[in-house]
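Q: For a teaching session next week I want to show students how multiple molecules come together into a single three-dimensional assembly. I've collected the sequence lines for a complex. Could you give me the predicted structure tokens for the whole thing so I can convert them for display?
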Amino acid sequence: SQTIHQWPATLVQPVGSPLSLECTVEGTSNPNLYWYRQAAGRGLQLLFYSVGIGQISSEVPQNLSASRPQDRQFILSSKKLLLSDSGFYLCAWSVYPGEVHEQYFGPGTRLTVT
Amino acid sequence: RKEVEQDPGPFNVPEGATVAFNCTYSNSASQSFFWYRQDCRKEPKLLMSVYSSGNEDGRFTAQLNRASQYISLLIRDSKLSDSATYLCVVNPPPSGGSYIPTFGRGTSLIVHP
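A: Of course. Below is the structure for the complete assembly, covering every listed component.
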């Protein structure tokens, strides 16, 4: 069966510090991968998605970046965090093309920028 | 008009009640539809897909109305454990080798004793 891992689970970082969040998927090949952010009391905001190694599409211009160095690894980074980067960061995977179109989410990383 | 709209609630119902949520979407070419459940401070989890013919999973029934562009979720015999936020998700036609789903903001359900 497929599983998705994210770490760390929680993170407190000062403004201006760098960020690296990692997501890995097991049990599937060539998944589509997604990074979302959910601010407190808000909906899900798609940040990046990837259809393959090295292929990144950005949905929202900001100080974040994403990379996919391996098929089942997706990394979210920032060189300098802003207070507004605080939120719940979720990684998700799906399969395309295929019969199944839904996404499956990792447990998330709760980031607080102080 | 927002792409996917949900009543944020909260819907506050007693145990055993039947409750229904609706969700409207703007893209008539949308291809697949889902309900997710999100508990407080947790990740969204797939509750059920929504098919044109309607589908049922235990106490949960989902319906799709393409003509009116809405989907619904009916929960019968509500349990305390049903308390959560329910997210409506709509997939437009794929783009660039991927589905880019649109999430509603969610409907909050509180089931009380």
